[in-house]
């Protein structure tokens, strides 16, 4: 049975964390890997093992709390992706990342890589924004709190590894995501005037275009978190197990 810590504490005690890590390592070591298919199942098993602990983090493995995920700052430089504005989203909290299902995991053993598709039913973001320039066709220069709700989110993650000192080390991660619906709200636009409300309505009517300009910056920061998070979990997978899948 999966070891689950029933606690409202923000993080595990050192003893609980040691027990969790021992359990994860035990589960990984006992998994039989002998081809691509069994490697895929093993990687899926690792992903499911971590799921209950995303709200706690694993300090010994340098895995931060992932639900909610804290993003210190996400900067959108002007003209980075054809956009005519610069923006700084900071003190951003993302809720709902532990409520996921994995659609598939597909490994390429000889290339030391695997891809995965993850589904999230509902993600919520809140934080602070500072924006200056033309967003879509609107001139904005404001700052304040923001919220965003995304539903039916599909994320694809491509991971590549290198072998270093007898261990797998994540060298590159690429994330892309799409969603069925998004509600985006910038508080304090034009001091909360009716015109500011109209601007929010306009942004939401063109949310796909808006996200096309914002997504690369958020994906870049999420990739950084993924590399930091996955490295220790992947290092717990013995290199011999991965190489046993190479044909």
Would you write up a description of this structure?
This is Takeout Protein. Keywords: Biological rhythms, Signal. Belongs to the TO family. This protein has five helices and six strands. It is an alpha+beta fold and about 250 residues long. It has one domain (about 65-245): TULIP domain (Bactericidal permeability-increasing protein, domain 1, Super Roll). It has helices spanning about 15-30, 35-50, 195-205, 205-235, 240-245; strands at about 70-75, 85-95, 100-110, 115-135, 140-165, 165-185. Residues about 1-10 have low confidence and may be disordered. The longest helix is centred in the C-terminal third of the chain and has 29 residues, at about 205-235.
The total number of structural domains is 1
Top-tier CATH class: Alpha Beta
End-to-end distance = 33 Å
| Structural class by SSE content | alpha+beta
Which range best describes the helical content: under 10%, 10-25%, 25-40%, 40-55%, 55-70% or over 70%? 25-40%
Pfam family, one: JHBP
Family: Belongs to the TO family.
Organism: Epiphyas postvittana
Keywords: Biological rhythms, Signal
Characteristic terms for this protein:
Takeout Protein, 6 strands, single chain, 247 residues, biological rhythms, Bactericidal permeability-increasing protein, domain 1, six-stranded antiparallel β-sheet, To_sf, alpha+beta, disordered N terminus
